[in-house]
Design brief:
Blueprint: H1 9-20, H2 23-30, H3 34-48, E1 53-56, E2 59-62, H4 64-85, E3 97-103, H5 105-122, E4 126-131, H6 138-144, E5 149-153, E6 161-169, E7 171-176, H7 188-193, E8 195-199, H8 207-218, E9 224-229, H9 235-240, E10 245-249, H10 250-256, E11 262-265, E12 274-281, H11 288-302
Helix pairs in contact: 1-2, 1-3, 1-4, 2-3
């Protein structure tokens, strides 16, 4: 399709759809009807020869092709915005600000070493301040300005929060090396009988446990949780010295195998994937520094 035959407004719709992963919320973001956004999605699928958003359980998730396009489309829209408004280009090397973020320690393990190395190189005077999550009040504290960004697995973010997919992960099991479970194939019954360590970061959070417990409930089973804690810190050492097991994000567990005598195993049930997103409020959406940091995080995880 030649450029003269393409509606560039579709790129604005694409940007909204990728941020929200929800047709109605994307329509609300652009103040258009749901049917108009659905039509825009249909045209985008033709334009890019890809479904772009696909069903995963009750949610929509971007396809691989859509994830590849996100940064390119944002760069095009940003360039057009600069062209129209004649804004001076943002230089992160001269920026100086503290950005407050919610990052649960699972994401901390995965994200922060790479992110801080990049900031040290490209924006040495930008500082990050990390605080503990509070899922019940995320929308409120973002609206109030208490935090600027959040990186988390968060199945149902508040409607007034913008989101951007970062990466997906899956839950795997972890047990000590030499655990009796490895002596024979693991049945669902034995999986439930062993003592489990459960992680729930933040006040009133249930998202990590829900993925396991809901899947077990659907097949009429229940596991035995003997240790519940708010952070992942210390889990590999508890697992290494006991017969307890845990079901945790794979990217995190892979790091645990480097610091403790533990092994990964496949849980004997089907579990939904974790969709980790970047979240922010409209008040910082057009801030040049915040936009640059969001793009940096997305670029790092596109690798």
């Amino acid at each position: 399709m030649r450029l003269r035959n393409a509606d560039l407004n579709l790129l604005v719709a694409f940007d909204a759809l990728m941020r929200e992963c929800h047709v109605t919320r994307a329509a609300n973001l652009l103040d258009i009807s749901q049917s108009s956004m659905s039509l825009a999605l249909a045209k985008l699928r033709v334009l890019f020869h890809d479904p772009l958003l696909i069903k995963s359980g009750n949610a929509l998730i971007p396809t691989v092709r859509a994830r590849e396009l996100i940064l390119h489309v944002e760069q095009v829209l940003r360039s057009v915005d600069v062209l129209i408004h004649e804004q001076a280009p943002f230089d992160p090397a001269h920026a100086s600000q503290v950005i407050t973020m919610i990052v649960v320690d699972y994401i901390d393990f995965v994200v922060m070493p790479t992110l801080m190395a990049a900031l040290e190189r490209e924006a040495p005077d930008v500082s990050l301040r990390l605080i503990n999550p509070n899922p019940r009040r995320l929308g409120e504290i973002m609206s109030r300005g208490d935090i600027d960004l959040a990186l988390s697995y968060f199945p149902t973010p508040p409607e007034n929060i913008r989101t951007r997919p970062l990466f997906t992960d899956r839950l795997v099991g972890i047990a000590r090396t030499g655990h009796p479970m490895f002596e024979r194939p693991l049945s669902l019954e034995r999986f439930c009988e062993y003592g489990h360590v459960a992680i729930e970061p933040g006040e009133g959070a249930t998202m990590y446990n829900a993925l396991v417990d809901d899947a077990l409930h659907n097949v009429g089973m229940q596991r035995r949780v003997v240790l519940s804690k708010p952070t992942f810190l210390g889990v590999p050492f508890v697992i290494a010295q006991t017969d307890l097991i845990a079901t945790l994000p794979e990217r995190l567990v892979q790091r645990f195998t480097d610091i403790a005598p533990v092994r990964i195993f496949e849980p004997p049930l089907q579990l939904e994937r974790l969709n980790v997103v970047l979240m922010w409020h409209d008040r910082t959406h057009n801030n040049p520094l915040h936009r640059w940091v969001r793009d940096l995080v997305a670029k790092l995880f596109a690798r």
